[in-house]
Amino acid sequence: NNKKHGKGIQVWKQAGAIYDGEWKFGKRNGYGTYSVLLLKSKEYVRKYAGEWKNGKKHGYGVYFYNNSAVYDGEWSEDQRSGKGTMHYENGDIYVGEWQMDKSHGQGHLFSNGKLYEGTWEDGKMNGDGKLYYSEKGLLYEGFWVDGEAKCGTMMDFRRDKAPAPPKYPFPKLHLKDVESVLREAKSACLDHCCQQSSRG
Questions:
Q1: What is the pTM of this model?
Q2: What backbone torsions phi and psi does residue 171 show, to the nearest 5 degrees?
Q3: Which UniProt keywords apply (predicted)?
Q4: What is the CATH number of domain 1-101?
Q5: How far apart are CA 153 and CA 178, in angstroms?
Q6: 189 three-class SS
Q7: CATH 2.20.110 domain position(s) in the chain
Q8: Alpha carbon distance 27, 40 (integer Å)
Q9: Does residue 181 sit in helix, strand or coil?
Q10: 10/21 Cα distance (integer angstroms)
């Protein structure tokens, strides 16, 4: 049938790209690397190294973006999907689950001296999570909607090891049933958010 099958190299001179890897019925399939030509240096740089299926990134692979960002993890039909680590150009690092090219599910974000660990939806913090402020020795534990903290508690966390803690310790919360208060606040927040989204 005259289609590429097995191992081989394809060069696209006009597009300035090279694929070196496995083929099946004329499509990239199996392990392979995809490189593009840099016009200034006239050298090829690797864009992707990993698994392919039906000509698309699928399975485990590493993708190098035009800036210094790198994604190392699972793919499904050319989109980040499954578990993976994203090193962003600004130094942020996300480690966790992905769906349809966005952080989605359980994940950790290391950003600017802070660590968020919790639930993500469509690329934003959504649901229960914890935000650690390592510089100040504080921990916020609560509930997020579309990337914004909506209700929760702030407390000292490893304050004695923090490089720049606040002048005074965070006061302890003295409620009989903290969990019940937070549950009610979370429920009210969800009701409000659902009403807002049904109007929009």
A1: 0.83
A2: -65, 145
A3: Cytoplasmic vesicle, Repeat
A4: 2.20.110
A5: 9
A6: helix
A7: 1-101
A8: 30
A9: helix
A10: 9
